[in-house]
Design goal:
Chain lengths: 676, 431
C-alpha cells in the first residue's frame, strides 16, 4: 500500500484547493451565488483541516518546521493584535504589528543565514552548528526576547516628555544602549560558553578529529556568532528606525520643536568651527606666547623661543589662552568668524532652490524666471517681490516651498559666557551673516531685519538658523558678532566669550540622512560585537566557562565605559599622560617616591592604582572613541572616517590580536584530558 | 579472511604503503601541576597496523588504550617516540580526511537531530549537499534511526546516540576506522550490526582499529590484536594463532539417527582415540535474542527505539551513491534476507571448524567435540586479567560423559563460548 508521506500530502492539497475553486467559479458563472459561497466555505474548511493535519503530522520535516514557525508566529501576533484592537488600545495593536514585523524579519534573516551556511565547508559547518546552538540552547534566546521586549517597552515609557525633540533623543540614546548591552552580554556569554563547554563535555573530540584545523574551528564559531549578531543588529536597527519615526510623528510642542526633530535630529549634520581670518592658528599661538614672554620670561622663555620647544603644560596653557581670546568679543566691539569649505552645503541649497522653484512654477502657473525670482527673493529680499507675483502663489504653495527651503538651513550654535555673571543670566549680542540684512524666511513680503538680535541665557547653547543659500560661491560664510557695551535694560557687558567648556562657535550643516547615519551606527555597534565574540572564544578556548565568561564581561564593561574610566583615571592621580613612555615611567616613579618622602602614603597608593588602571586599559579597546549613539541622537553625522577607523581598530586590529593570541595557545593545547 | 591471516607462521614484512599506523617508542607521560611526571600512561610501545586488517587493542581499564588512540587522532601529543598515520603526522588535516572515529562515549550536540548531526560532520569533510543527503539517508537507514531522523539527539537513549556516533564515523567512507568501545550501550542486534559493518569494511580493504574490553566482540572480528597492560604491549599477534589449542581436535557431524552416543564413543575409541567426549553444540544467548527480535519484527510489533537489521550503506560497500541502486536494494525481501543472514552470521564466526553451514531452524544439529576443558592455562589467566574490573567467569567444563539432546536447553556445555555469553550479558545490562 502506498504510504502517506508529505509529498503525497502536498499533492493532495493542491488538488483540494483546485477542486473547490473550480466549482466555485463554475457555480458563480452560472449565477448560483449562494451555492458558490457554500462550496467555497466548505472547501476552505476542508483545506484548512488538511493543511493543519499535514503541518502537525510532518512537523519534524525541515521545511514544514519552518512553515510552522511562521504560521504560529503569525497566529500569536494576529490574535494579540486583534485583541488589542477590539479593546480599542491603539498603541497596543500597532506595537504588536511592529513587533510581528521585527520577529518576522528575524526569522527570515535566520533562514537566509541557514541558506548561506549550506555549502560543504568545515568553517560553514561549524558556523551553522553555532547558530543552531545559539537559537536552541536558550542562552541567546533569552537575550533576543529581552531585546524585542525592551524595544517595545522603551517607546511606551517615553510618553511623559512634552517636547518631541527630547522624546526622540532619549529614545535614540536608550535604544542603542539597550541593544548594545543586551547583544554584548549575549555575545560574551555565548562565545565564552561554546568552546569551553565543547572542550569539557568533549564534543570537540569529535569535531577536531575531522579534517578541520583549529583556526577553521575558531573562525567558524566566530562566524556563527557574528552572523547571528548581524541579523539581530539589523532587526534592531529597523525596529529603532520604525519606533523613532513613530515617536517623531507625535504632535510637536511648537514649530521650533517640529523643526528641531526634523532638521536637527533626524538628519546627519557636520559640525564646523571657524578659522581665524587673516592669520593662522600657529601665528595666533605665537602672538600670545610673545606677549607672555615679555611679561614673564622665566616661565615662558626669552622672546623668540618657539612654542614647540616648551614643555607640554606651558604649550597647552598658551594654546588655551589663544583660543579663549579668539572666541571673546569685547563690549562695544564686533568680531568676524569665517567658516570655509561649505561647498557641499551650498550645492545642497542650490538643489533645494531648484526643487522649491519647481513647486512654485508647477503649482502657481508662474514662468520659470518668475518662479526663480520669487524663491530667491523669499530667501534674501522678500520686500522686493511684486504684489501681483505674491498673489499668484497661494499660502499652501508658499508653505510647501518654505518647507522645501528649510531642509537646507544650516545652524549656528553659540554658548555664551561672561563675567561678572549678569543677575538674570542673560547676555545680548547681534549677529549678521555675510554683512547682509537678516532674511525673514517665514514671512514672505516682510522686509528683512538689519541684524539678528540674540538675548540669550549664559552657559547654554543658543541656536540660529541660517539659509544655506547665504553661503557664497567659494563655500564661505562670515558671521559677524557684535556685543554692545550694555544691554537694552542698561546692564553693562564688558565682554562675551563663546567657548564655554570647550563649546566653540559651531556651524552645522546637513551632509547626509538619518537613515544612513543609523546604518553606520549599527555597523559600528556590530563591529564592537565582533570583537566581543572573538574575545569570548579566545577566552573559552583556554579557560573554563565561568572564568572565560568573567574575563569577557570585565573587558566588555571596561571597553564600554572606557571613556569615563579614562577620565577618572586621569583625575585620580597626577602623572603625565600624553608624553613618551620614558617620561611617563620616570615621572610616575618619581611622583610615587615624592609622595612617600612627604609621608603622603594615600597619594602614593593612588599613583599605584592609576598605573594598574592604565595598564589594564591598554588591554581594552576604547569603545568610547566610537560613541556613535551620542552623534546619532544629536543629529550629527557619523563620518565614514569614524566607520573606517572603527573597522580597522576594533574589527581588524583588536579582533585580530585577540584571535591570534587565542589561536596560538589553542593550537598548542591538547584537546583531550588526562584519563588514566 | 585476509592475506595476512592466511600466512600466520611467517608473515611477510609489510611494505610502507601497507602500514597505516606505525608507532615506535611511543610514550605519553602526564605531568602534574609542578611539571613532575605523574603517570606514564603509554610507555615506549611499538606497533603497526597494516592496511586491510582489523586490529584489536585490548587491555583492562587504564592500560593506555584510550591514550594511544587519542595520540593517533592528534587529541593528545606524544611525549616522545614516533607516530605516523598514513605516513603523516596525526594532526595533519590530510590524514584526518581518511579516518573515521567513534569515541568511547558519544559526545553529540544535544540540540541537533541525527540528520543535522550527520550533515554537520559531512560538512567537515567538504562533502557537497547532494552527497551529504544521500549518505545521511543511507547511514540512518543502516543504523536503524531513519524513523527518528528529525528528533533532537538529546532525547535519545545511550544506544541510539551510539548509533548516531557510528554513522558519523562512517560518513566520509574512511580508510581507517577507529572504534573505541563501539558496542558499549548497544543491544545485541546493534552489536551484531556493528560487527557486520566492521567485517564488510574489512572485506573492502579498509583498516579498522578496534579498542574494547568486550572480548567476545574482539574475538569475533579481529585479525590481529595487541594486548596492553600498564602502558606497555604485553602480547601481540594473529588472533587465530593466539587462540588455537594445539593438542585437541574437534569433529563435527550431522544429527545422529540410529546410533547411540555410547556406540559412537566406542567406535571412535576403537580407532585408537583416547579421552573421547560426546557433546551437542549449544546456541549462544545472543542467537536466541536475535531470533526473538527477528520474530517480533516479522509479526510487525512496533518499537519507538532503534530498529535494526538494516543493510550496510551502499557507499560503504563501494557501490556508488545513486539512489536507484540504493532503492532497489531496499526492497522488503532484501531486508528479510538480510536479517536472516545477520542472525545466522554469529555461529559462522564462532565455530571455525564447523564444516556444514549452520542451520538455525534445525537446532538439534549435533557435533562431537573432544573435550576442551580449558583454553590453555596462559590464555586463561590472560583473559581473566584483561576483563579487568569483573574477573571473567570462565566456564568450567562439565565432567566428561555422555549427554543427551534434552540437556541442550538447560545446561551449559563446554564448547559454548564463555566470552560470547559474557558479551551479550554485558550488552543487555548496558542497553
Amino acid at each position: 500500500m502506498l504510504k502517506l508521506n508529505w509529498k503525497i500530502w502536498l499533492a493532495v492539497l493542491v488538488g483540494m484547493v483546485a477542486v473547490p475553486v473550480a466549482f466555485t467559479l463554475l457555480l458563480s458563472a452560472q449565477g448560483a451565488q449562494a451555492a458558490a459561497q457554500w462550496v467555497g466555505f466548505l472547501g476552505g474548511v476542508v483545506v484548512s483541516g488538511w493543511v493543519s493535519f499535514g503541518l502537525i503530522r510532518w512537523r519534524e520535516v525541515g521545511w514544514v518546521k519552518r512553515v510552522n514557525t511562521f504560521v504560529i508566529t503569525t497566529l500569536i501576533f494576529s490574535l494579540a493584535g486583534l485583541l488589542f484592537r477590539a479593546l480599542g488600545w491603539e498603541t497596543g495593536w500597532k506595537t504588536s504589528a511592529y513587533l510581528f514585523l521585527a520577529v518576522l524579519g528575524f526569522l527570515v534573516g535566520i533562514n537566509v543565514l541557514r541558506l548561506l551556511l549550506r555549502p560543504g565547508h568545515p568553517i560553514l559547518g561549524v558556523a551553522r552548528t553555532m547558530l543552531e546552538e545559539a537559537l536552541r540552547m536558550g542562552i541567546a534566546l533569552i537575550f533576543i526576547i529581552a531585546l524585542f521586549a525592551m524595544l517595545v517597552i522603551l517607546p511606551l515609557g517615553l510618553g511623559s516628555e512634552d517636547r518631541v525633540t527630547y522624546m526622540v533623543q532619549r529614545f535614540l540614546v536608550y535604544s542603542t544602549a539597550v541593544v548594545f548591552v543586551l547583544l554584548g552580554l549575549m555575545t560574551v556569554l555565548l562565545s565564552a560558553r561554546t568552546v569551553s563547554l565543547e572542550l569539557s563535555s568533549r564534543q570537540a573530540h569529535m569535531t577536531l578529529t575531522k579534517p578541520i584545523t583549529r583556526w577553521q574551528y575558531l573562525l567558524g564559531k566566530w562566524l556563527g556568532i557574528v552572523l547571528l549578531d548581524a541579523v539581530l543588529v539589523a532587526v534592531a536597527g529597523v525596529a529603532i528606525y520604525g519606533f523613532t519615526m513613530g515617536i517623531a510623528r507625535n504632535p510637536a510642542l511648537n514649530d521650533l520643536d517640529r523643526f528641531q526633530v526634523d532638521r536637527e535630529i533626524l538628519t546627519a549634520r557636520l559640525a564646523m568651527t571657524p578659522d581665524p581670518i587673516d592669520i593662522g592658528w600657529e601665528q595666533m599661538y605665537q602672538n600670545v606666547l610673545t606677549e607672555k614672554q615679555l611679561r614673564d620670561p622665566d616661565q615662558f622663555g626669552t622672546e623668540g623661543t618657539a612654542l614647540s620647544s616648551l614643555p607640554n603644560a606651558i604649550k597647552q596653557e598658551v594654546m588655551a589662552e589663544a583660543i579663549g581670546r579668539f572666541y571673546t568679543v569685547d563690549g562695544a566691539s564686533s568680531k568676524q568668524y569665517r567658516f570655509t569649505g561649505l561647498q557641499s552645503a551650498r550645492l545642497a541649497s542650490e538643489r533645494s532652490i531648484e526643487r522649491a522653484k519647481a513647486i512654485v512654477r508647477d503649482q502657481s502657473g508662474l514662468s520659470d524666471d518668475e518662479a526663480e525670482q520669487y524663491v530667491r527673493a523669499t530667501l534674501s529680499q522678500p520686500n522686493e517681490l511684486k504684489p501681483e507675483t505674491i498673489q499668484k502663489v497661494t499660502p499652501a504653495v508658499g508653505d510647501e516651498m518654505v518647507r522645501e527651503l528649510e531642509r537646507e538651513k544650516i545652524q549656528l550654535v553659540l554658548t555664551p559666557d561672561t563675567s561678572p555673571e549678569p543677575e538674570d543670566q542673560f547676555v545680548e549680542f547681534y549677529i549678521r551673516v555675510n554683512n547682509q540684512p537678516w532674511p525673514r524666511l517665514m514671512e514672505p513680503g516682510a522686509p528683512p531685519m538689519p541684524v539678528n538680535r540674540g538675548e540669550v541665557p549664559v552657559e547654554s547653547p543658543y541656536e540660529v538658523n541660517i539659509p544655506a543659500s547665504m553661503i557664497d560661491q567659494e563655500g564661505t560664510l562670515v558671521v559677524t558678532i557684535e556685543v554692545p557695551r550694555q544691554r537694552l535694560d542698561g546692564t553693562p557687558q564688558p565682554y562675551v566669550q563663546f567657548n564655554y567648556k570647550d563649546a566653540q562657535i559651531e556651524l552645522y550643516y546637513r551632509v547626509g540622512s538619518f537613515e544612513v547615519n543609523l546604518l553606520k551606527a549599527m555597523a559600528v555597534l556590530w563591529l564592537k560585537l565582533c570583537f566581543l565574540a572573538m574575545l569570548g572564544l579566545a577566552a573559552g578556548a583556554l579557560l573554563s566557562f565561568p572564568v572565560a565568561a568573567m574575563l569577557g564581561l570585565v573587558v566588555f564593561v571596561a571597553a564600554w565605559a572606557s571613556g569615563a574610566i579614562d577620565e577618572s583615571l586621569a583625575d585620580y592621580a597626577s602623572t603625565p599622560r600624553n608624553a613618551d613612555a620614558w617620561t611617563v615611567v620616570t615621572a610616575t616613579v618619581s611622583s610615587f617616591f615624592t609622595h612617600i618622602g612627604n609621608g603622603a602614603f594615600y597619594d602614593a597608593f593612588r599613583v599605584v592604582v592609576r598605573i594598574i588602571g592604565e595598564g589594564f586599559m591598554l588591554l581594552v579597546p576604547s569603545f568610547g572613541k566610537f560613541n556613535t549613539s551620542e552623534l546619532l541622537s544629536t543629529g550629527r553625522v557619523i563620518g565614514l572616517g569614524l566607520v573606517f577607523s572603527a573597522t580597522w581598530k576594533i574589527g581588524l586590529m583588536w579582533t585580530g590580536i585577540v584571535g591570534a593570541i587565542g589561536l596560538y595557545f589553542f593550537h598548542r593545547r591538547e584537546i583531550a584530558r588526562v584519563t588514566v | 579472511m585476509t592475506q595476512a591471516l592466511s600466512l600466520p607462521n611467517q608473515p611477510a614484512p609489510p611494505t610502507t604503503e601497507d602500514v597505516v599506523v606505525k608507532a615506535m617508542g611511543l610514550t605519553k607521560i602526564f605531568k602534574d601541576f609542578w611539571l613532575r611526571d605523574k603517570v606514564r600512561a603509554v610507555d615506549a610501545i611499538d606497533f603497526e597496523i597494516r592496511r586491510g586488517e582489523v586490529f584489536g587493542l585490548l587491555g583492562p581499564n587504564g592500560s593506555g588504550k584510550s591514550t594511544t588512540i587519542k595520540m593517533i587522532l592528534g587529541l593528545l601529543h606524544p611525549t616522545s617516540g614516533k607516530l605516523a598515520v598514513f605516513g603523516n603526522l596525526p594532526r595533519d588535516v590530510a590524514t584526518k580526511k581518511r579516518i573515521g572515529y567513534l569515541p568511547e562515549e558519544t559526545y553529540l550536540y544535544r540540540f541537533l537531530s541525527p540528520t543535522e548531526t550527520l550533515d554537520y560532520y559531512g560538512k567537515l569533510f567538504h562533502l557537497d549537499r547532494s552527497t551529504r543527503k544521500k549518505r545521511i539517508a543511507m547511514l540512518l537507514e543502516m543504523v536503524g534511526l531513519d524513523h527518528a531522523a528529525n528528533r533532537p539527539v538529546g532525547e535519545f537513549s545511550k544506544g541510539m546516540m551510539r548509533k548516531v556516533g557510528l554513522a558519523q564515523a562512517l560518513i566520509n567512507d574512511p580508510e581507517l576506522l577507529i572504534l573505541d568501545e563501539p558496542t558499549s550501550g548497544m543491544d545485541p542486534i546493534a552489536t551484531n550490526d556493528v560487527k557486520e559493518v566492521i567485517l564488510k569494511l574489512r572485506d573492502r580493504g579498509k583498516t579498522i582499529l578496534l579498542c574494547s574490553h568486550l572480548l567476545a566482540d574482539v574475538q569475533d572480528v579481529c585479525d590481529r590484536v595487541s594486548m596492553m597492560f600498564g602502558g606497555k604491549v604485553r602480547r601481540e599477534g594473529d588472533l587465530d594463532r593466539l587462540l588455537q589449542v594445539q593438542d585437541k581436535t574437534t569433529i563435527t557431524t550431522g544429527k545422529l539417527t540410529g546410533i547411540s552416543d555410547e556406540q559412537l564413543v566406542a567406535a571412535l575409541e576403537k580407532l585408537g582415540l583416547t579421552d573421547v567426549v560426546l557433546d551437542h553444540p549449544r546456541r549462544t544467548l545472543e542467537q536466541v535474542f536475535l531470533e526473538m527480535v527477528d520474530e517480533a519484527q516479522r509479526q510487525g510489533v512496533k518499537t519507538f527505539g532503534a530498529r535494526s537489521g538494516r543493510e550496510v550503506a551502499a557507499f560503504l560497500q563501494g557501490e556508488g551513491e545513486d539512489d536507484t541502486t540504493f532503492n532497489q536494494r531496499k526492497t522488503q525481501r532484501e531486508r528479510e534476507v538480510l536479517i536472516e543472514s545477520l542472525v545466522s552470521a554469529a555461529p559462522e564466526t564462532n565455530t571455525s571448524a564447523t564444516e556444514a553451514g549452520p542451520d538455525r531452524s534445525e537446532a538439534a544439529d549435533q557435533s562431537i567435540k573432544t573435550p576442551t576443558p580449558q583454553l590453555d592455562k596462559a590464555a586463561d589467566t590472560l583473559l581473566a586479567q584483561l576483563t579487568g574490573e569483573k574477573p571473567a567467569p570462565i566456564e568450567k567444563p562439565k565432567p566428561a560423559g555422555p549427554t543427551t539432546a534434552k540437556k541442550e536447553d538447560s545446561s551449559k556445555s563446554p564448547d559454548a563460548k564463555p566470552d560470547t555469553d559474557r558479551g551479550v550479558i554485558d550488552d543487555l545490562l548496558n542497553g
